[in-house]
From TrEMBL:
This is BioF2-like acetyltransferase domain-containing protein. The keyword Cell wall biogenesis/degradation applies. Coiled coil: none annotated. Belongs to the FemABX family. Gene3D superfamilies: 3.40.630.30. GO terms for molecular function: aminoacyltransferase activity. Keywords: Acyltransferase, Cell shape, Cell wall biogenesis/degradation, Peptidoglycan synthesis, Transferase. The lineage of its organism: Bacteria, Katanobacteria. GO terms for biological process: cell wall organization; peptidoglycan biosynthetic process; regulation of cell shape.
Length: 308
């Protein structure tokens, strides 16, 4: 297995900077505003002004920050929160009055699979135990089914698997309406993959969305029966090949255990170990940054809103 720890990867476009992501979050009251240089700003009305978040954008310079602040002031932003590119020069943010936030809203450590590699090269990167698990699942008759722009019944079937896994592993699962919203926003760039055991029973599912050549892992799960048969490994392997065939260049496996944020990632050890078997490039993101643009928020932040 070849896991490469990196903090200086070339910029990989993120779907969270797309119009499709803005269309999805509109169901929660957010709107996406783009700067003249195509930086996506998410804005949501709030009691003390608008909430603003900018997630995984390209590297920002001084002029970008100035335009962002102008837009945010027009939107009566209470604060501006930026989760920057891994390559961002933090001094640009500090010079503009931003301070480090220790409360991220997106995963702070992740793994990218380079889908531009050949199938043979991708296979070589998988760990010995990962390859064994895939072969075992194949020997026991596991089969995979793929869906582009999945229909309502497909989403419901996947959700039942996700719900089963969430209850077993005790992690938060968005409501079914969230999955409908994502598929509606991403359309042909929304993907689901199912895995069946040798008895043709659905035992695992994964959901991805994509834009700008990058796919993001949203949710995955396997039933207790599927976990016993290692079908999750076959599911992930075939998902990688499917997304490669769909023309994507990168797959963001979306979240690994990060000791810098123990409260945020404390239950991620198990699926971090699973993902690492696929030999991608591990990326540690920068800390989030925040700037309070409202005098009231600046005052409150010193007392009760430090969690921002």
């Amino acid at each position: 297995m070849e896991n490469i720890e990196s903090t200086e990867v070339s910029f990989i476009p993120d779907p969270r900077q797309s119009k499709k992501w803005g269309d999805y979050l509109a169901i929660y009251g957010w709107k996406m505003i783009f700067t003249s240089k195509d930086v996506g700003i998410l804005v949501k009305p709030f009691l003390l002004g608008s909430l603003v978040k900018i997630q995984r954008c390209r590297v920002l310079d001084k002029s970008d920050i100035e335009e962002i602040e102008k837009i945010c002031l027009e939107q009566k932003a209470a604060f501006i929160k930026i989760e920057p590119s891994v390559s961002q020069n933090e001094q640009v943010l500090l010079n503009a009055g931003f301070v480090v936030s220790r409360f991220p809203q997106t995963p702070t450590k992740t793994m990218y699979i380079n889908l531009q590699l050949s199938e043979e090269e991708l296979w070589k990167k998988i760990s010995k135990s990962g390859k064994y698990a895939i072969r075992r699942a194949q020997r026991e008759g596991a089969t995979v089914e793929t869906f582009t722009y999945p229909k309502e019944d497909t989403i419901k079937k996947a959700f039942s698997v996700f719900k089963n896994t969430a209850q077993t592993k005790k992690f938060y699962l968005p409501p079914l309406s969230d999955y409908f919203g994502r598929v509606k926003a991403f359309k042909e760039s929304a993907y689901m993959v199912f895995v069946y055991d040798g008895e043709k029973e659905l035992v695992g599912a994964q959901f991805f969305v994509a834009d700008k050549g990058t796919g993001v892992f949203v949710t995955g799960g396997t039933t207790s029966k599927g976990r016993g048969q290692n079908t999750g490994y076959e599911l992930m392997w075939k998902s990688i090949l499917y997304l490669k065939k769909c023309g994507l260049m990168y797959l963001d496996l979306e979240g690994l255990d990060d000791p810098r944020f123990p409260g945020f990632t404390k239950n991620w050890g198990g699926f971090s170990h699973f993902k690492e078997k696929f030999g991608g490039e591990i990326v540690t993101q920068q800390f989030p940054y925040i700037k309070y643009t409202s005098a009231t928020m600046r005052l409150l932040s010193k007392w009760s809103l430090t969690s921002l």
